[in-house]
Design a protein that fits this description.
mainly alpha; two-stranded antiparallel ribbon; 22 helices; 2 strands; 70% helix; 1% strand; disordered C terminus
Length: 488
């Protein structure tokens, strides 16, 4: 019996890896071929991600791991690179190649990151469903969510997304299965991968523990708090070799400690709320098109938030619904949102991959348990939200070029309407499939295939838009240089 379970588990692990590989490769490889082996995007991807990884590679191989004379006017090596790549296993894999080869390595490395994100999220989601195919589907939703697509320019965000589910898996195994050590190791890994994101992940873990165990059954689970704190501290101690100098470097930054003003702690400017709604209903824009680098993206490919809404409507008192409601309130209140960034005054939504995993979980539970009551309302709300974005475009904001309009709709309004069509077609098609599910053989496979298709489409649109932006910027630069008499 145990051998059969292991074989079954290996089958689904292989499936999620293959499907994530196919999806990411179909979207990325054509651009690698077009670039003759190089994979480039725009702005920070080209001016930071590539040179930073090349510089860190060279420094390590030359033994210059204490002080980098080539960053700024000279700075701490750990302080300069730990946010971007230094603790990431993916970066250490890239050291197998010469530093100058990194622009050729980053494309395949992105594909690997999508595969790891799918694998780790599958390991977490599979605990909550009987039909493991739905856990595979949920892994695809998480790995190819709007957060991942929209943050392609920031390649190191994908490292964080890839390993975050291991913390929740470790916590589940510690509290529910009484398996020790895995949580500590997952904490250590995530702390070294990115100390900035880790701060927010700790906040999320506290919320997860409270809503998952403490609030429903305080008397049963409060005794487990010390062992969780002990393993967390152990993991943090393991990571201290990189985590501690990174935190010390951050504390010396003059931006640290800037706090929100009292009015700004309770409300955003109006367009932020519109942007949050757009994040739920529409595929992610490319950041350079909106000039907004907050990473405010949520959209789940193909199904959107429709099935997650059905779960919320049908399970109002469940721990997951309450957690999602709490996360929604946090996202709407600046002071609460800033908890994920140690009270930073700047607006960021770079913790949204955490609720995305919870939305993916709600989605797969609905499919696994066939909780299709209130199906019409669940699909109608996101469809109305999608159409509402179009109405806002034509009525409130119009076609006027302004900073607020760009944050919401981007500079390329053609892309905005492409995203509207993608979202609307996805919701309508998903609704029809769920309605006809009893007549469809291998329903879960059809759903997975369409999630993959929509993920490829949204990724391709964003990468293609980025390549067009590169061409546009190059043309501008040529024109400026010609006007000033400088040879191109």
């Amino acid at each position: 019996m145990n051998s059969l379970k292991r074989q079954d588990s290996k089958k689904y692990i292989f499936k999620v890896l293959i499907l994530c590989f196919i999806t990411s490769a179909v979207a990325i490889v054509p651009f690698i071929i077009n670039g003759r082996g190089l994979f480039t995007l725009v702005l920070d991807f080209n001016s930071q991600q590539l040179p930073f990884n090349i510089g860190a590679n060279e420094s390590i191989k030359q033994g210059a791991v204490l002080w980098d004379w080539y960053a700024d006017l000279g700075t701490s090596f750990v302080g300069a690179y730990s946010f971007y790549n230094l603790g990431s296993p993916f970066f250490w894999i890239s050291l197998l190649f010469p530093s100058e080869a990194f622009p050729y390595v980053i494309g395949p490395m992105l594909i690997l990151k999508y595969c790891v994100a799918g694998l780790t999220s599958y390991a977490f989601l599979s605990r909550f469903v009987k039909q493991k195919d739905y856990a595979v589907l949920g892994a695809l939703l998480y790995a190819f969510s709007g957060f991942q697509t929209g943050s392609l320019m920031f390649n190191h965000f994908h490292d964080v997304v890839a390993f975050f589910p291991l913390m929740l898996l470790g916590l589940e195994m510690l509290v529910s299965d009484k398996k020790y050590g895995i949580f500590a190791l997952s904490v250590a890994l995530n702390a070294v991968v990115n100390y900035f994101f880790f701060v927010g992940e700790v906040v999320f873990l506290i919320l997860y523990f409270c809503f998952r165990w403490l609030i429903p059954e305080f008397k049963t689970h409060y005794k487990k708090i010390p062992v969780c704190l002990l393993e967390g501290a152990l993991g943090l101690g393991i990571s201290a070799v990189l985590f501690l100098p990174s935190i010390l470097a951050t504390l010396s930054n003059p931006k640290f400690g800037q706090a929100l003003t009292l009015p700004g702690a309770f409300t955003y400017v109006s367009y932020r709320y519109v942007n949050l709604l757009k994040a739920l209903f529409l595929p992610a824009d490319l950041m350079c098109d909106t000039h907004d680098y907050s990473t405010c993206f949520v959209y789940l490919p193909f199904v959107g938030i429709a099935l997650a809404l059905i779960y919320i409507i049908n399970n109002k008192k469940s721990w997951l619904t309450r957690l999602l409601a709490a996360l929604a309130v946090i996202a709407l209140v600046p002071g609460l949102n800033s908890m994920f960034y140690a009270g930073n005054v700047s607006y960021y939504a770079r913790w949204f991959y955490m609720p995305i995993l919870m939305l993916s979980l709600a989605t797969v539970i609905v499919l696994d348990k066939q909780q299709y009551k209130n199906i019409n309302l669940g699909f109608l709300l996101p469809l109305a939200g999608t159409l509402g974005m179009v109405i806002l475009y034509y009525t409130v904001y119009g076609e006027k070029q302004s900073s607020r309009t760009r944050v919401i709709f981007g500079e390329n309004y053609t892309s905005f309407f492409i995203y509207v069509v993608i979202a609307a077609v996805g919701i309508i098609t998903a609704y029809a499939l769920v309605r006809l599910r009893k007549r469809i053989k291998r329903f879960s496979h059809v759903m997975m295939s369409l999630v993959m298709l929509f993920a490829v489409i949204t990724m391709t649109v964003n990468i293609y838009t980025a390549s067009k932006n590169i061409c546009r910027m190059c043309r501008r630069r040529r024109m400026i240089l010609r006007l000033t008499g400088v040879m191109w």
